[in-house]
Amino acid sequence: MPPDTNPFDVRAAVQELSAAAWPERKKRMHPIHRRFIQSARRHPFRTAMADAQTDALPFHRALAAAIFIGRRLKPIWADDRHVGILLPPSVPGASVNFAALLAGKIPVNLNYTLSPDGLASCIRQTGLRRVITSQAFLDRLNLGLQCDKVEISEVVNAPRLTEKLAAALAAWFLPARLVERSLGAARPSRMDDDATVIFSSGSTGDPKGVPLTHYNIGSNIEQLAQMFALDGDARFLGVLPFFHSFGFTGTMCLPAALGFGVAFHANPLEARVIGDLVQRFNVTFILATPTFIQIYTRGCAQEQFGGVNTVLVGAEKLPDRIADAFEKKFGLRPMEAYGCTECSPAVSVNTLDFRAAGFRQVGGKRGSIGHPLPGMSARIIDPDSGTPLPPNEPGLLLLKGPNVMNGYLGLPDKTAEVLKDGWYVTGDIARVDEDGFIVITDRLSRFSKIGGEMVPHIKVEDLLHEFIESHEQSFAVTGVPDEKKGERLVVLHTLEDADIEPCLEKLASAETPNLWKPRADDFIKVDSLPYLGTGKLNLAEIRAIAGRGKSERRDEVKE
Fold first, then answer.
1. Residue 56: helix, strand or coil by DSSP?
2. What predicted TM-score, i.e. pTM, was given to this entire model?
3. pLDDT at residue 395 above 80?
4. Domains and CATH numbers, the chain
5. For residue 226, how many other CB atoms are within 10 A of its CB?
6. 207-216, 384-393, 451-460: which has the minimum mean pLDDT?
7. CA-CA-CA-CA torsion for 426, 431, 432, 434, nearest 10 degrees?
């Protein structure tokens, strides 16, 4: 490059070289379950996993449990390629997933927060014939399944001494290839084989199947490992569901592959139980969503988080009001990360600063999603022309790297829409500052085009929350069709009448473009905002509620 090239362009070139060089690592990488075996044999007595109902399992016992379950399930799923799993984040849930991987199967963790139609669609798309689950769990969720159910309690019931001994000996001594063969794997796993199918959350539409390979997920694990200097004492909190890619990769596969412990809990909303779990198992690293850490700020005691040194938040934008409240209570500021299912999922993270005598390298910036992970290249383009944009110019975010999927399951047209010339089109509007930090300004789907101008929903939400001085999510903004201006903003809120009136008065007098000001009669009171099981706002349901509210008001006018 010319000697007068600016740092922004140099950084972009280095990122592209990093993405191009990463495939050289593939020949030295191992499938996820083989890394689990390696961890068990290097650290046999280190805690691998625990939950509120299960004592801490050391790695050698965790591997033996997965082998035992795999042998019990061998005749049941012998002819299946995809294996359905419908269990919460827990020791049994993780054990069944690793049993499936060791047996050469592709685990499909089903989203138990979907509608019956959405769940049936996932089963149909992956051709599932049976699902490993718990009837008690299904009853609690009032779920029905349109395929055979295999009760996990019956699978693990009354293990014989010979079975336990065989599983333990295999965990200690049997070569990895023979472990796989003993569980029914037809051939050794390869890095390009699918490791799982994760269904997109459906926050803006129907869920799409995203096959992720061992190379995709293994690369994401290595990328995250390079960003955080974790040691053998690291303990993760596992409250993210395995049907969420953040949970599958970050709190199930990553600890197992790197030899760290993880404490699972089925319900991420139970702050009292989670606070106790964090303290009891000395959790040091929390992966969560803004919604979840907001709950922990209210419901957990300061001393319970005394051993935590890192809180990484993703899945949706981290508002300052939530981060400030968490930091004020626990003395630790959450760091925002960014990811998407199609990228396995981590894309970029904020980290701690690097400091040395006479030197400081900034690792994070408030309001940003950090730097791209090693091996990832990010590009900002004009959404209309496709032209790359200079620093601090917002545009469409494109990504390239080893963790990017190969395509959607059975949807070549949808794949062609988002994968272009090796780049993944995220659908997010972002900018990159002069130091290389990425700032998400909004989702392309979270804009309304009003009178020819693009109005960002998230910024309107932030403005409303400033007016009420609250760190809790009380507003959700969406757009509905409007005959005169194309679209109109509608706001769902959870405030009482006495609280919403002052907010509307502040909005009316605010020095904000009029297009950003929803009308007073476009504020709709709801008992609670709709969320997905991943902790994200359910944007599709929010639009539906707003649309119904608009229709009801129109009917009232007619009457």
1. strand
2. 0.84
3. yes
4. 32-189 (3.40.50.980), 451-558 (3.30.300.30)
5. 11
6. 451-460
7. 170
